[in-house]
Amino acid sequence: MKKLMILVALVLALTLVLVACGPADYNNNPEITTYPDFDIDPNLPDFDFDIDDPWGGGEWVDPDGDPAPALVALINELYEGVDDVPMTMDIELTAANFEQFVFIDYVEGATGVVSQAMISAIPHAVVLIQLPEGADAAAVAAEIEEAADPNRWICVEAEKAAVFHSGNFVVFAMSFEGVVDGIAYNVGTVLA
């Protein structure tokens, strides 16, 4: 019985070796071919891609557009002296992404900047909204406060969310408690 088991094991080992090696002429297989480089058809139309208006309709909004430098400067002032602020990136707040960041419908004429964590697993976003003259900042702030979802990141949740307003500015912050408290302290001096 032992001899039969040894013989079966030897046949299986030999079979595995033969299968693993493949055919003897593998390196000279005539079915493997290299195709020549293809020339582009000269009859194709010339595509002139305009990064600012790629579809030619004037309606496209760059989701990562550059926000106004003055608003970025205000956001940076809101961070002054605040500890434990994660690495952030600034995104232009537009009609196209307004609801995504502030949870309410776009306020006509509003501009702004979103400062959010570069890593999506860090629950941090500070939104500075500049409303047009005559807009009711207190009403917009109240609407954001009611609609805000600190769990917008799905897997993580902001420790604290707060909405502030001063003049025609609204600041909406969702982050760690210390960061939101630091921004709250700065709002009074930066936007006064």
As a percent range, the share of strand residues is: 15-25%
User: What is the tally of beta strands?
Assistant: 5
- Write down the Rg: 30 Å
Strands in their spatial order, largest beta sheet = 1-2-3-5-4
CATH topology of the domain at 69-190: Streptococcus thermophilus LMG 18311 protein like
Shape summary: elongated
Biggest sheet statistics: 5 strands, antiparallel
Helix count, DSSP H or I runs of 4 or more residues: 5
**Unreliable residue runs:** 53-62
Based on the coordinates given, report the CATH architecture of the domain at 69-190: 3-Layer(aba) Sandwich
- Cα end-to-end separation: 95 Å
Q: Helical amount among residues, as a percent range?
A: 25-40%
Average pLDDT, rounded to a whole number, is 81
Give the SSE string.
HHEHEEHEEH
Question: Which class do the helix and strand fractions yield?
Answer: alpha+beta
Task: State the name of the first-level CATH class of the domain at 69-190.
Answer: Alpha Beta
